[in-house]
Amino acid sequence: QVQLVESGGGLVQPGGSLRLSCAVSGFPLNYYAQGWFRQAPGKEREGVSCISSSDGSIYYGDSVKGRFTISRDNAKNTVYLQMNSLKAEDTAVYYCATSWIPGSSCGSSWDLGDDMDSWGTGTLVTVSS
Fold it and tell me: What is the pLDDT of residue 108?
């Protein structure tokens, strides 16, 4: 059974940093694409970042480019999201997700999350002074 467990959320001041982790169990994640998504209160889900399985191509949402970094540790079967220069508008519940298709890549509409098959339960990030 595929399971994704996010951790690392919390309260941070504007300008600060956090690293989110997503521990995946049930299959080796390096054969599949994974993504980070977020949803703020009253807003639609937003694609934050995606990493492909085949060539490791990485994509970021426009609002986080240059501040967030996605990475994957195959030995630990964990996906990370390093978040720097955090802003109040980054406040949201952050979810990781994975595709079940071997060799999957982040498609042109990766930010919609429609290509993801399993989702974690989320971790709350609050950016506030």
Answer: 87
User: How do strand 34-39 and strand 92-98 relate by DSSP bridges?
Assistant: antiparallel
Q: How many CB atoms lie within 10 A of CB 23?
A: 17
Return the pLDDT at 107. Answer: 86
CA–CA distance, 74 with 60 (Å, rounded to integer): 20
Q: Locate 91 and state its tokens.
A: 């406040």
Q: To the nearest whole percent, how much of the chain has pLDDT over 70? A: 100
CA distance 29 to 98: 8
Give the number of other CB atoms < 10 A from CB of residue 115.
Answer: 19
The DSSP 8-state label assigned to residue 32 in this structure reads S
24: left (phi over 0), alpha (psi -120 to 50) or beta: beta
Beta strands per DSSP E along 31-122? 34-39, 46-51, 58-60, 68-73, 78-83, 92-98, 118-119
Q: Letter for the amino acid at 81?
A: L
